[in-house]
Amino acid sequence: MQQNVSGDPGPSVPDDGGGTDGTHGAKPGDAKHDGGHRAGGAQPDSAQPAGRGAGGGPDRTHGAKPDGANHGANHGGGHGGHVSEATALERFSNSAWAWGKEIVTILAIALVLSFLIKTFLFRAFYIPSGSMENTLRIDDRIFVNLLVPEPFALKRGDVVVFKDTQGWLPPESVKTGPFSWIGDVATFIGVAPDSSQQHLVKRVIGLPGDHVKCCDAAGKLTINGAAITEPYLFPGASPSDTTFDVTVPAGHIWVMGDHRNNSEDSRAHQTESGTGFVPISDVEGRAIVIAWPLNHTGILGNYPDVFAKVPEPSAVGQGASSGVIPAGQ
């Protein structure tokens, strides 16, 4: 085996009469094949020499775009920026519209629920006077359970709100102003308390058939002959500064304010017009919660212990009254 060593010309190869391309004994096809391997993917013979353009023109970088192409690419990039900006704005608009629809839906559901609750379950009222102090104070907001007196029955000691159908209150003044209807709508829907002056709030003392009298020798109010001690009275107030002796007729109740010295209740209207007995049909419901102000919130109880020893009436009749007269007369 021959081994080529640097400086050794190696064995001579006879000339076959053809030209050589620098590779001794190689065929033209082999030369191209070998050259292709050695050049690492060089262009075939027809390709232009490196560094020269067609016709001897200036050199160009292989794969570079002409100026027009570069301008088109830059121009296309500008349009791409506008498209991206428009797409972002469209996404924001779609998101805002979706949020808007969701908020409107939630508000609509809330208003419907508020109306249903106000109509069938609970209703808010505003306290304008001090006849129920200190249980209720002026400007208190209360929630009333509309399930009383039906399907749940009234009980002695319940604080109730009832409509004035007997003229206990003076006529309400007509509201004026361009925006007076807003309050009416809010009250109707149930998002605002009822501030009308045609409702009253008192405590139930006598139920149908009860014999209510004031006062006994100890100065206490009696129901069906049983004396009661009333812890809910305004401090310093007596059970009544007038005497009365009544039997509550069927379908009615006898009501009194907790601030007895500052309450025109069944006592006053029985002696003035004979309308002291309140129809149960006028009762809107039982007040159960003071919701506002926050420093006076709480549950309104009906003091069952106060009335625990009161016997049931022997019979429910048409009702009777011996009148109401000032104490001491």
Automatic annotation (TrEMBL):
<feature type="compositionally biased region" description="Basic and acidic residues">
    <location>
        <begin position="27"/>
        <end position="37"/>
    </location>
</feature>
<feature type="region of interest" description="Disordered">
    <location>
        <begin position="1"/>
        <end position="82"/>
    </location>
</feature>
<feature type="active site">
    <location>
        <position position="202"/>
    </location>
</feature>
<dbReference type="Pfam" id="PF10502">
    <property type="entry name" value="Peptidase_S26"/>
</dbReference>
<protein>
    <recommendedName>
        <fullName>Signal peptidase I</fullName>
        <ecNumber>3.4.21.89</ecNumber>
    </recommendedName>
</protein>
<keyword id="KW-0472">Membrane</keyword>
<dbReference type="InterPro" id="IPR036286">
    <property type="entry name" value="LexA/Signal_pep-like_sf"/>
</dbReference>
<dbReference type="InterPro" id="IPR019758">
    <property type="entry name" value="Pept_S26A_signal_pept_1_CS"/>
</dbReference>
<dbReference type="GO" id="GO:0006465">
    <property type="term" value="P:signal peptide processing"/>
</dbReference>
<feature type="domain" description="Peptidase S26">
    <location>
        <begin position="102"/>
        <end position="292"/>
    </location>
</feature>
<feature type="active site">
    <location>
        <position position="131"/>
    </location>
</feature>
<dbReference type="GO" id="GO:0005886">
    <property type="term" value="C:plasma membrane"/>
</dbReference>
<feature type="compositionally biased region" description="Low complexity">
    <location>
        <begin position="1"/>
        <end position="15"/>
    </location>
</feature>
<comment type="similarity">
    <text>Belongs to the peptidase S26 family.</text>
</comment>
<dbReference type="InterPro" id="IPR019533">
    <property type="entry name" value="Peptidase_S26"/>
</dbReference>
<dbReference type="GO" id="GO:0009003">
    <property type="term" value="F:signal peptidase activity"/>
</dbReference>
<keyword id="KW-0645">Protease</keyword>
<keyword id="KW-0378">Hydrolase</keyword>
<dbReference type="InterPro" id="IPR000223">
    <property type="entry name" value="Pept_S26A_signal_pept_1"/>
</dbReference>
<keyword id="KW-1133">Transmembrane helix</keyword>
<dbReference type="GO" id="GO:0004252">
    <property type="term" value="F:serine-type endopeptidase activity"/>
</dbReference>
<feature type="transmembrane region" description="Helical">
    <location>
        <begin position="103"/>
        <end position="126"/>
    </location>
</feature>
<keyword id="KW-0812">Transmembrane</keyword>
